[in-house]
Design brief:
The protein has about 180 residues and is mostly helical. The protein has two domains: about 10-85, K homology (KH) domain (GMP Synthetase, Chain A, domain 3), CATH 3.30.300.20; about 105-175. Helices cover about 55% and strands about 10% of the residues. The chain contains seven helices and three strands; from the N terminus they run H-H-H-E-E-H-H-E-H-H. Strand 1 and strand 2 (about 45-50) form a beta hairpin.
């Protein structure tokens, strides 16, 4: 079996090395945030071609054009001009097939409905356990019975909402 390096053409490998070398020089000039938007650099007949992912970065890179050519010339790369290119945006492929609905057994609907019913029982038990005898709940100084009542209503309200959602889900499962 051939290694990965044998699968890449020598011209392609040379272009990748040149890209890495130019990006290293460019990284000394432009900020890291801008450098991450440069997709590819190529040198063809004295023209540096920089491909970016968005047209907004072309304007920002134009301010550094003279610095880029000077730095690349200092690295013995023959750069006369710079041209910027924007990579084409990949358009998402529209789905042509219809989605298949998941078949769910009636037992699943019954299980969700049973869970919803048990939610009301467990919520009632938990609120009964949290209610304290006396004006201050044990272990929590400074709290009144009104605070505990507020907590019970919040627990009951969230439990009721969860129960309602579970009942809706059970109804949908029964329909399918």
């Amino acid at each position: 079996m051939k290694s990965f390096h044998h699968l890449i053409d020598t011209a392609t490998r040379a272009a990748m090395q040149q890209d890495r070398r130019m990006k290293e020089v460019i990284s000394r000039i432009v900020p890291a945030a801008t450098l991450s938007h440069i997709q590819f650099c190529r040198l063809e007949a004295g023209r540096l071609r920089i491909t970016v992912d968005n047209a907004a970065w072309v304007a920002k890179l134009r301010f550094c054009e003279r610095q880029l050519t000077g730095a690349l010339r200092a690295e013995s790369l023959d750069v006369h001009t710079v041209s910027f290119h924007v990579a084409p945006v990949e358009v998402p492929v529209v789905r042509t097939t219809l989605r298949k609905t998941n078949t769910v057994s009636p037992r699943a609907a019954m299980a969700v409905a049973a869970l919803a019913e048990s939610m009301t029982e467990s919520t009632a038990e938990s609120t009964a356990e949290t209610s304290g005898q006396g004006s201050t709940p044990p272990g929590r100084p400074g709290r009144t019975r009104g605070d505990v009542a507020d907590e019970r209503s919040v627990v009951r309200g969230s439990g009721d909402r969860l129960r309602q959602e579970l009942l809706k889900l059970a109804a949908k499962l029964r329909e399918s």
